[in-house]
Every structure is written in C-alpha cells, then in structure tokens.
Amino acid sequence: MKRAVAIALTASLAGCTVGPNYRQPPVLSGAVAPPVLAGGREAAYDGVAPLPPHWWQLYDDPMLNDLEEKALARNTDLRVALASLEQAQAALRGVQLQRTPQTSLAIEPSYGQASGDSKGSSVALKPGAVYEAMGTISYDLDLFGKLRRSIEASKADVGAAQAALDLARVNVAAQTAGAYASVCSAGLRIAVTHRSIAIAQQSLDVTQRRFDAGIAGINDVVRARTLLRQTAATLPALITQQRSGLYMLATLTGDAPEAFPAAVATCSSPPLIRKPVPIGDGAALLARRPDVRQAERKLAAAVAAIGVSTASLYPSISLGGSIGTIATSLPDIVSNRAFQWNVGPLVTWNIPNLGPARAQVAQSNAAARGALASFDGTVLTALRETETSLTTLARELDTERQLADARDDAATANANTARLYAGGIGEFLDTLDAERTLIEAENALASTTAQVSQDQIALFMALGGGWQDSPAVIGTSLTQVTDKPH
C-alpha cells in the first residue's frame, strides 16, 4: 500500500511545472481589435490588398530583382544572423539532452600509499599502484519542471534568433533597394544637370554671338558664363553620390567595393510605383514585422525563466547509479572482488537557505515585466513608423505633382523668352532669369522624385516585408582561418 502511494505521489509530482504559463499578448492573439492604419485612407495606398513577400518585384525591374536575390543570399549581416540562429539551435539541443540519462566514465591509475587505519591495519601499508575505473549514470526526474521550463525558454530563444535573421533580411532588402535607388536618382540628376548645362551653354553661345555683333554687352556674356559654370559645378557631388551607391550595392551583395555591378551605373530612372501601394491591415502588419515577433519571443523566454527560477525553491531529485572497479594490480581489475556498484536517488535542496533562490525569482519577474514593456514599445514603434512612412510618402507625392507642374510652366516661359532674345526682342536678364528658374525647377523635381523613391522603400521597410520565401543564406565556413574543415 505504501509503495502504491509513493508511486502515485511521484507520478503526480512529475506532472508539476512551477512558474506561470505563458500566453501570447492580446494584440497578437486576436483577443483585442487589430490597430487601424490611418494612412491607408490615402488614395496612394491599398489597405485591402496584402503586401507581397517580395515587394521589390512591384517595380518590375529585373536588375533590382537580381540585386535583391544576390544580397539576400550573400550579405555578411545575414551570415552573422544565421550563425547566431545556429548557436541558439545548438543551445536548445544541449538543454533538451539534459532530459536524457547522463553518463560518465573515469579511469584513474595512480601510485601511492593508502591509510592503514582506513583499511583496518595496525601497521602502515606499503605504497603501490592503484587502478580505478568508475562509470556513472543519472536521470533528473524534473519533478517541478525546471528542465521543461529551460527547454521552453531555449525554444523561445531560437524563435527570437529566427526573428532576428528575418529582421536582418528586411533591412538588407530595403538597404539594397535604397542603394539602387540612390544610384539611379544620382543618374537622373546627372542627366538633368547635363540638360541644364546644355541650356546654359546654348544661352552663352547666343549671348556671345550677340556680343560679337555689338548687340549685347560684356556683362551679359559674363553672367551667361557664370550660370554655365555654376550649373556644371553640381556634377562632381552627384557623381560622388552615384559612386557611393555603387560601392554600397557591392558590399550589400557580398562583394568588394570595386566589384560594383557596372550595369547599374547607367541607370538614370529611380524605381517608382505609380499605382496604389498594397499595405494590408494593422493585424497583418504586426504579424509580419520580425521585430515584433522577436520581442514576443523574448517575452516568452523571460516568462519561462520565472519557472526556472521558481523550481530552485524546491528539491531536485535524480535517480542514478555507478559501477566501477578498484585493484592494486592491473590483472585484478576485472576480478569479482574488485567490483563495486550502487544505485539510488540523489536529493538536493537548499532549505532553509532559500533567500538567494527567492531573489532570483524576483529578478526573473522583473525581467519579464521589462520584456513585456519592451514588447509594447516595439508594437507602438511599428505602428508609428508605418504611419509616419505613409504620411511622408503621401505628402511627397503631392509635392512632386506641384513641382512637375512648376517645371512645365518654367519650360514654357524659358522657351518663350529664348525665342524673343534670339530674335533681338527680349531682354537678357529676362532670359537669364527664365533659364535659372527652369534649371532650379528641373533639379527640384528630380530631387523630389528621388525622395519619393526612397520614401516608398522606407514604407516597405516599415511594413516589415521581404523576409518571406528568401533564398538560403550562404553560411560562413572556417576553412579560411583553420587548418581543418568544420
């Protein structure tokens, strides 16, 4: 009867797992209404259609697609994040193996003198060799769930590491598109500058001919030449921007800066989507953003750690045994009289000194509360970044439309004054002013178009897309720094 009660008590304890059970935050579990993306009411966005996994394909640009594919496979930041994930996975396997029987084997040959009193001898023993071999096996019953909570925490750590890898993918995809847009935007502004130089050169030529004919004064020539030189002076900075973008693209795709993609250097049209951008809804945003998922997994790990700490308040019971042999001569090590063995439970409990364990429980609870606050902050940041990106892009599109109309008006005015001046009717200052206005309008429009391209990419980054269905990251091998393969 007593044996049956003991077995039943042990079985009931085996199912006990101390510490709180984790529940997913309401904002992710659907227990509360999902947030509404206010920016989705703009005509520039589609709040119904979901964001496609590979959002850069919306640009229908094969060159950009190739760059993204290469960057997502070879980027060094992704290789670091992949190694961190593999490290977390290995740690999880190590914790899981603690649920299995633990074994050890020790072989200790030695030479010395044993105590005569300990052997029951009235005289000192002679020194000699001693050969000892001992094998042990133990199994932690995990009565209060310390190992189970440790495995739960390690699984959450793996989830957080996976989310970190996905977050790195989001950043790399956006950075690659941004660098490509920077190169193409610089190419656009270089082309606009060359057109402006051509306009200024044409004005200088006309003014020079009029001066040679005695119609215009030398100051008109100087002013026209000044405008030409000022316009040409903007080229070096644009070329630097273009080169910097090319170098960035090379490093993002895992190449040395000088190995930048030469074909991209000819791009002069930044990637733009001239239709409503699919953004989905607030629930899809939070489920998609890897940083939200990473914060949630860190919260889960912190809650599990409370259980690990709480289990330290209770006794730890292991079942184990050992078998070994001790002999004073090597042939006797396998004799029956040399063998020894034992089996039984091992109970470890720090009672009554539970103060450190209770302090650890309090520490774990505080860490979990901090992780919850961090999760809430991450959710709010995700919503803020998305709303800011939606508003910024909408207003930049309004600015671009206004500047396009202004550029058209400036082009009309410049053409009219140029005809009048060439015909000897118009005033030079009017012509010069019209040219300057057109050049400024062209550059302002080009700059805003470039900003619209970057704002669209920033929006996609805020939406958290780009990590799904990504190509496998090429891992890091140690063959370059070790003499053996690993």
TrEMBL record:
Record InterPro entries: MdtP/NodT-like, OMP_efflux
Localization (cell): Cell membrane
Keywords assigned by UniProt, alphabetized: Lipoprotein, Membrane, Palmitate, Transmembrane, Transmembrane beta strand
Annotated membrane topology: Lipid-anchor
Pfam assignment, any one: OEP
Protein name: TolC family protein
Coiled coil regions in record: none
Gene3D superfamilies: Outer membrane efflux proteins (OEP)
Stated family: Belongs to the outer membrane factor (OMF) (TC 1.B.17) family.
